[in-house]
Amino acid sequence: MSQQVVTRIAPSPTGFMHIGTARTALFNWLYARGRGGKFLLRIEDTDRARSTPEATEAILRGMDWLGLDHDGEVVSQFARSERHAEVANQMLAEGKAYKCFATQEEIQAFREEARSAGRSTHYRSPWRDADPATHPDAPFVIRIKAPQSGETVIRDEVQGDVTVRNDQLDDMVLLRSDGSPVYMLAVVVDDHDMGITHVIRGDDHLNNAARQMLIYQAMSWPLPVYAHIPLIYGPDGKKLSKRHGATGVAEYQQMGYPASGMRNYLARLGWSHGDDEFFTDAQAQEWFDLSGIGKSPARFDFKKLDNLCGQHIAATDDAALLHELQAYLAATGQPAIETSKIPLFEATMPHLKERAKTYGELLEKAHFITADRPIQPDEKAGKSLDTVSRGILKELTPQLQNASWTRPDLEMLLNGFAEEHGTKFGKLAAPLRAALAGRAATPSVFDMMLVLGRDEAIARIEDAAA
Ligand code: GLU
């Protein structure tokens, strides 16, 4: 039986949750979920000066919003520092690491000399082979005894074989003189103890992989499969930054993008499955594989994001969509849709969800439902309510009073009415939208009239005509 897949996302809680972290999390989630594996979450909070509880909260919220559920408890890296130290001490006991008593000044002097002599500035500690009997009673760090010749080959599922000459790797510090572990040791010990089988992460960590492998080898631990994925670039081919648009997961949530569309888009950002653009979570889980990850940086395409999100909104079942809208309103601190309006939403949902790329656009179209009389037209809608239009609306109301309130009859009535005024229904539509919804972008005038019902529709038109 093959081993169960265990992946993880290991963000550092030092700010907001970046869209790149979300994509890495998604890739790990898809890989595990598609294989009946586990997906774990570890907060890399060893850097006490930079880690904040707010940043951890932002990560948890982002993961929750994106629906990237993780297995087991959230692991705090900092809480495991004793275990990290234990491993460093085990390496020391086994002769895989050594105590180094060099002072900062000595290391500095070594580097300066190496630099002026044109040699590698990687520190070579005189303590590497020192007899413990000669050890002073002074502060020390624990350094790994790295191989000084040969090469380390990272067998990467995305980058291919990446070879690093061992003389390029120094005897890195594992444990500082205050007994605290360095980040590089913590990552390896945690990944090993958590049983991580696949490390899928940004290629900014590729250089770390070679050094991390030395720790695995020293401990005779099995290596994980590595997949270092290219970072996300902006449309101009430069590293994604604020200049291009939003880079924080929370911003996309605030903008009203649906999580399903976000997952679909982020999956396509650097990974492909043939020509498939629009797909469901089930399909993504079934299809996702490391071989589909591209080697060159993906470019963030805001249009494509809009397009996919629109398709996801349209494909969401009406009841689920109502639920998502309420969650969006709550997450953005807006009042919920009132219970009394819910039947109207239900009746209109099929029209509302067409062509809305975000919840915000959908709610904008639903304004005719959420707004109460007297309807306040926004600036654009207000422009179609000039004196002439108001006169026409005034004439229309008695005819509406006597109409039968069905789509064919209303269509006939309004088309005929437009013709009598020597115009097309299209000309009549703008003031009607303004009267019924107070907006220029709305569902069709007929849909609104039918959903609102005769009394409410006529009352709104009378308000606008007055
Ligand atoms: N904490 C690292 C980061 O946020 C990730 C480390 C890893 O995935 O190995 O970039």
How is this structure best described in words?
With 466 residues, the chain is mainly α. Among the domains are: 150 residues, HUPs (Rossmann fold, 3-Layer(aba) Sandwich), CATH 3.40.50; 87 residues, Arc Repressor Mutant, subunit A. Helices cover 47% and strands 11% of the residues. The chain contains 20 helices and twelve strands. A three-stranded parallel beta sheet has the order 1-2-3. A hairpin with a 3-residue loop joins strand 6 and strand 7. Helix 5 crosses helix 6 and helix 16 runs antiparallel to helix 20. The model has no long low-confidence stretch (mean pLDDT 95). The site of glutamic acid (GLU) has 7 residues, from loops. The site of glutamic acid has 7 residues, from loops.
Main attributes?
elongated, three-stranded antiparallel β-sheet, Rossmann fold, 466 residues, binds glutamic acid, mainly alpha, 11% strand, Arc Repressor Mutant, subunit A, 20 helices
